[in-house]
Prior knowledge:
The complex is a heterodimer of chains A (279) and B (309).
Chain A: H1 2-13, H2 20-48, H3 64-75, H4 79-87, H5 92-97, H6 100-104, H7 110-144, E1 149-152, E2 156-159, H8 165-192, H9 197-215, H10 220-225, H11 247-274
Antiparallel strand pairs in A: 1-2
Helix pairs in contact in A: 1-7, 2-7, 3-7, 4-7, 4-8, 4-9, 7-8, 7-11, 8-9, 8-11
Chain B: E1 3-14, E2 17-28, E3 32-36, H1 43-50, E4 58-63, E5 66-67, H2 72-76, E6 79-82, H3 94-104, H4 111-120, H5 136-148, E7 154-158, H6 166-181, E8 186-191, H7 194-200, E9 203-208, E10 211-217, H8 218-223, E11 227-233, H9 236-243, E12 252-255, E13 259-264, H10 269-278, E14 283-289, H11 292-308
Parallel strand pairs in B: 3-8, 3-9, 6-7, 7-8
Antiparallel strand pairs in B: 1-2, 1-4, 4-5, 9-10, 11-13, 11-14, 12-13
Amino acid sequence: MISLINIELYKIFKKWRSYIGFIAIGILVPIVHIAMFFEGQHTLSHLTENLKQNFVFVGNLLNGYLIAYLILISLIVQIPFLIALVAGDLLAGEASAGTYRMLITRPVSRTKLVTAKFIAGIIYSNLLVLWLVFTSLGIGIIIFGTGELIVVQSTIYVFAQDDILWRFALAYGSGALAMSLVASLAFLFSSLVENSIGPIISTMAVIIIFTIISALTQVEFFKMLKPYLFTNYMQVWRYFFEQPVDYYLVFKSWGILIGHIVVFFSATLIIFNRKDILS
Amino acid sequence: MKKIIEINNLTKRFKDLTAVSNLNLNVYEGDVFGFLGPNGAGKSTTIRMLLTLIAPTEGSIQIFGKPLNQDRNHILQRVGAIVEKPDFYGYLSAYKNLEILGKISGVEINKKKIMEILELVGLDKRYKSKVKTFSHGMKQRLGIAQALLHDPELIILDEPTTGLDPQGMKDIRDLITYLSRDKKKTVFLSSHNLYEVELVANRMSIINKGTTQVEGNVSELLNASNLKVNFEVDDVEKAKTLLSTTVWISKAESFSLQNIIFTLEKNEIASVNKFLVENEIKVGAIIPTRSLEQYFLTITEKAVNDKSN
Lengths: 279, 309
């Protein structure tokens, strides 16, 4: 199995499209760093404008943590597209290239092949999140240093310097889990068709539609639907930037995300094992 | 003799379309088995079922005496195949493609072995080239290389000469003969070209519309049929007059500027030639032609005649 996973990873990283995500993050994050370097104080003032009447802010608030947090908020919405680009191609790409015929006539079960591809897709998704960690948090700390983290949600939270890293670790971990879910959805769609455009667009369409429905909570029907939409639980990472952390919601969200991954992967296995390879 | 492939009442239906219907077939150890049929006859569907790419609707397949649906992986370890046109990872080199396919097959294949196989199919000089730069013929040869990679006992080739130039076709035929005669492999060769099968196969089966029309030894089946033979002569009119006094005139199908086409048994060709030459007609060439379609007509007519008798 390890050999099969290595082969799949090798194939993924031999394709140009696999680097689009890394390049996109590698360009976007430094742009944010540069912008914050020149405009950061202004942005921070804007964030804390109303609070200055009641609080006195001291120390280095424009630090690597704040920038990593702001990048996380903005990019976590875009990363699913970059993941779908690769995960949607894992099975459908073989069909459109005609290489299914070579693969499936080998003495290895379809279950093993699909599992190896799935694991490779998950590894890819996690590597992309790791790259985000390195570029946003790692480089952010190098350029801007460390300090307290100010988070403005419905409430204002200010986290002490020694109370931040574990929050980032769990937030990025939760983000990686959410991205694995995106990968497993794209992978499922990939097993249904014979070109990779369909799975990529379908995955994004599902995520966008679900996200819009989740946001339209003023409509009663959508409000009722919200708990059943997996996108609702992809924001679990935000709980780690609240005080206290609501672990009930964290574990519930993790459970739902993992449950979806298991269901999507099982469905892919069933579909692929029954599929007639006609390409 | 040991059966390598045994197919019983194999049927595959796609919604309303029956691609293969109650197909029966036996391939024995050491055979070069020609699996013939026109386009759309069900050859590729049968091969896809033999290689578990698609599941049969009904019927059974046994390979090496074991049921394919129960012992798939062990069976496929001993089978190498090309299904239709060979497609590879275009962004990888020929060598890397073979290395990957070898690893998936679960066998240890070192560089020496890969290079030997590439040399066998004449691609050793291009082993570093990306497959997307290969011509169709080169991909076809790489397809054969991947089929031989794990030293299989049974080689299934689905129309391996399609799209090749005459030299490429001959190379593939020579390779099949080499694999059968020198390496003692059993070869299952699908084709729509009767001539090709006649040259390399010892046994054959013809299918049409998903069902077996005929199965047996190539020499026996083909000798039993009539050949269309084109005699290229210098004086067609004189030949026609001479032939009109003999039984051969009934076997002459058409006369054109320099050609007379006969329908003859194989052993009659020499007699017609002798007759023409002895009567001072110069015979420039004797060209036997037997297309699969003509052969079909022959065997179908024969079947109808047998039935009415």
